[in-house]
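Here's a chain:
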Amino acid sequence: MLLLFSQLALLGLLTGLVFTDERKHFGLKFGTQVGDHILIKLDMHPLQEEFSVCSWIKRIPHSDPIPYWFTYASPSINYEIMIRDDGVYWIFNQRSDFMSSVISPDNEWRHHCVTWSSSSSQFQVFYEGKLIGTDNTPTGRKLGLSGNIALGNIVRTNGQVTSPEYNFGGEMFKLNVSTKALEESEVKMMKGNGLCSDYEDQFGLKRYIRWEDLLQEERYGNVTLVDVGCEAEGRAAVWDVLYSKEFYNKILTSQLLNTLTSTWDQLEHFVGSKISEGFIKHFKYEHGNSDKCDED
């Protein structure tokens, strides 16, 4: 029995890793109420001297006039980092206005990115892969620590989100925060590779806040997963590679197979979500009960 549970745990771990990877291809849709947000508290030391905040944002017209999708407040400063979806930004209590370079809400995905480095004392703003503005920051200034990040609204110095006029109310995809100020060429490539690429993966450990991790964070109010249309062939292929014949022979012992095949209807639930059609067919053919398989 212990062996069986160990094998189940291993299978669950492998499938969990795949689904974590798959899940990052979903976006988040934020409601239009003050309670519709995500609140995060992290160690900000890795971002203290330089950072990049990049995301795909879909602007959806709604009544709130000041839509912030990313904010960070330290215990003493509300406006450490604040990013709106209309071209207004705050860095270290300093406002930057590049609204003339940003398209009005059009219900389309647009790429936003900001970078900052203490060594250059420059805050750079990119929109759709192009540098649209640069502001100088105080020499020697570093990012304040011990604060909170809010997605979908403004967070205050006390860690509270209470301002209804600042609701984002749009959709967000692949928000990543890096511990380096990305080069202009890197931002251009990120946008140029498109919504569904995994270009950001190349930054490795410098990607300090990862989209796939943000999707695991607690959501408050009306914040829901949304399909952004990036589910295609590559995801089904992952299953075909993972569940190869070698995998079956080494991992799925007779006892485990008997447990799984006792009811085919439960197979999908066992794995944890949605399995590719190819995997289910292969599993059934390989281990008998082929009469239960659907015709190709």
Notes: The chain has eight helices and 14 strands. Confidence is low (pLDDT under 50) at residues 4-20, 232-248, 268-279, 290-296. The first strand starts at residue 26 and ends at 30.
